[in-house]
Amino acid sequence: MTTNPSGKLPSRRTLLRNGAIGFAAAFQGLNAHAEYLGNGQARIPNYGPLRSIKDLRTGLKLLRLPVDFQYVSFGWRDDPLTDSDGVTPSSHDGMGVVDTDADGIVTLIRNHELRNSGSSFGTPEILYDPHGRGGATRLRFDTHCGEWLSSEVVLAGTAANCAGGVTPWGSWFTCEEEISGPPQGYDHTHGWVFEVPAQGMATPVPLRDMGRFKHEAVCVDVQTGYVFETEDDRYTSGFYRFRPGRRGSALALARGGLLEMLKVKGVPNADLMLINTGDTFEVEWVPIDDPQLGLQSGVGPYGSIDGQTTSASGPFFQGYQEGGAQFRRLEGCWFDDFDRLIYFTDTEGGFPRQGAVWCYDPSLETLRAVYVSPGPGTLDNPDNITVSPRGGLLLCEDGGQSRERMHALTPQGQLSLFAQNDVVLNGEVNGISGNFRGAEWCGATFDPSGRWLFVNIYSPGITFAITGPWSRGPL
User: Fold this and answer.
1) I need a surface site. Which of 95, 111, 157, 159 has the fewest CB within 10 A?
2) Sequence-ordered strand ranges (E) for 113-254
3) How many domains does the chain divide into?
4) Which helix (H) or strand (E) element contains residue 205?
5) Closest CA to 163 of 106, 234, 96, 116
6) Number of C-beta neighbours around residue 402 at 10 A
7) Is residue 372 part of a domain?
8) Strands (E), 10-75
9) Distance between CA 274 and CA 410 in Å, rounded?
10) Is residue 149 in some structural domain?
C-alpha cells in the first residue's frame, strides 16, 4: 500500500487539472438547466425528492436521500474499537479527511463532544486531562470497495470537542467548545485547539496562542498558512485569524504566533448579527495581545437589540476593545482552495435568527453574507459547513426541526434540500432505542475524489459514508 508521502490531499484545482472531475461541464449544465423564479432568481436543479433508503450495513432505513444514493453506517456509539477492548464514544461531531493513499484508503479524524468533567477514555500517552471526557477517534475507509476498515482513539482527556479543521500538511485541528478548568472539576484549563496527526497518536499539547475561547471550527489558507477560527458564544462571537510564526508541518503552530480579530473597516464594534443576504463589508484585523486570557465576567453589556450578555472570552474582550466585530454564534468554517475563499456560518445570524452563511475573501479583504435564512422551514440554524470538490457548499442543520436536514448551497446563494435524518431505533444496534430524527447532522466532509460524503448524526452517535450521482445537482 503506497501512502501519499506528503500527507497533503489533492486540491480541487489539482483534480480539475488532471481531469478527475468535469466541473466546468457540470457548471455549464447547471446553468443550462436552471429554472427561474418570477423575480429572476435562479432555482438550481436539486437531486429530486427524498425517500427512505436502507443502510447497507444494518438494513435499517436511517436516512432520507435522493433516488440512486446509497450509504453505509459505521462507528456507532458503543461499537467495539478495532485497536483495543474499548468502545466507540458518543456525541459524534466535527470530522475531516486528513489523508488518502494510492489504493483509495482515506483516513478521517472524528471529534466526540463530551462535556463536563468525569472519566476520560484513551491511554495515558494521549491524555491531556484525566477528567476530560472528550477526544477524537481515527477512522479508515476504502473508497474503492465502499467498506469501513478500522477505528481507534487518538486523543483523549479534552473537553467538548466540537468542530475543527483539516490542515494542508495532513492533520486535524480539534477544537474545545468550553472555557473551563479546576473550578469545574478538571486538572487543567480548557478552551483550546489541539492537533491530531493522520498517523500515530496525538501529542496532547494545546496550541495556546490560537486563543482560549469557545472554539467551533478552523480552516487554513493554503497560500499564506494563516488559520481562521470561529467562536460560538452567544452575542460575543468573534472571527479570528492566527498568523503562525512557523507553518507547514505538524505541531509547528505550537511554537506560537499572532492572534487577530476581524474588524469592519471604519465601523468600530460592528454588529453583524442582524444582516441581510448580499450585505458586504470591507474588513481589517486588530491584534489580541493576550490570547490565553481567561473568561471575563461583568465586562458588558454586549449584544444586540434582541439580547445582551455581560461576559466574554478573553480574546473577544480584547478584540472588541480594539473595535472588533461581533457575531451571534459562529459555527462551521471551510477553506475553498479553488477560489481561495473562506466560508463560515452564524447559526443564529440574520433577522429571523435562523442562520447566515458568510464568505470572507482574503485577497480583497471583504466579507459578504452569501445567504441569510428567511425562516426555519427553509433553513434551520446551519452549523457545520463543507465545500465539495465540485464547488458546492453543504450545510448541516442544528435547529428544532422534527427531521434535521442537510442542504446544498451554491456560492451564488441558491439553496436546495439534499438529505433528512430518519433515525428511529428500537434496540436493533447496541441496544439503542429512541427517535433521533431531531438530532443534528455534523462533521460533513468529502473524500478528495468527490465520490464519497462522510457525515455524522450527533445522537445517538453514527457515522455515514454516502455516495451517488453527485453530478445531478450542485454538490
Assistant:
1) 157
2) 134-142, 147-158, 161-166, 171-176, 193-197, 215-220, 227-231, 239-244
3) 1
4) none
5) 96
6) 9
7) yes
8) 35-36, 42-43, 50-54, 61-66, 70-74
9) 22
10) yes
Query: Quick one: cell of 461?
Result: 452517535
Asked, for residue 229, whether it belongs to a domain, the answer is yes
pLDDT at 400: 83
* Residue 447 grid cell: 473524500
3-state secondary structure of 391: coil
Per the listing, cell 488559520 goes with: 227
What would you measure as the largest C-alpha separation in the chain, in angstroms?
62
Distance between CA 282 and CA 164 in Å, rounded? Answer: 26
Per-residue pLDDT, 44: 58
Separation CA 342–CA 94 (nearest Å) = 17
458: CB partners within 8 A, 6+ apart = 91, 92, 93, 113, 439, 440, 441, 442
CA of 169: how far to CAs of 4, 221, 299, 302, 415, in Å? 11, 12, 39, 38, 32
The phi and psi torsions of 179 (rounded to 5 degrees) equal -100, 105
By residue count, the chain amounts to: 475
Number of H-type helices and E-type strands within the chain: 3, 32
* pLDDT per position as a tens digit, 265-306: 999 999 999 999 999 999 999 999 999 999 999 998 888 777
Q: Is 253 helix (H, G, I), strand (E, B) or coil?
A: helix
Phi, psi of 317 (to 5 degrees): -55, -45
pLDDT of residue 11: 53
Strand partners, 391: none
Half-sphere exposure of 124 (CA within 13 A, CB side): 0
Which residue segment(s) compose the domain that 212 sits in?
72-377+416-434+454-466
Q: Which of 91, 131, 130, 85 is nearest to 111 (CA)?
A: 91
Q: Are 87 and 163 in contact (CB under 8 A)?
A: no
The alpha carbon dihedral of 283, 286, 291, 297 has a sign of negative
Half-sphere exposure of 119 (CA within 13 A, CB side): 2
**pLDDT tens digit sequence for 232-246:** 999 999 999 999 998
What percent of the chain is modeled with pLDDT above 70?
90
Structural domain includes residue 285: yes
Distance CA 271, CA 265 (A): 13
Return d(Cα 190, Cα 217) in angstroms, integer: 16
Interatomic CA distance for residues 358 and 239, integer angstroms: 11
By CB neighbour count within 10 A (0-12 exposed, 13-18 middle, 19+ buried), where does 464 fall?
Answer: buried
C-alpha cell at 366: 471583504
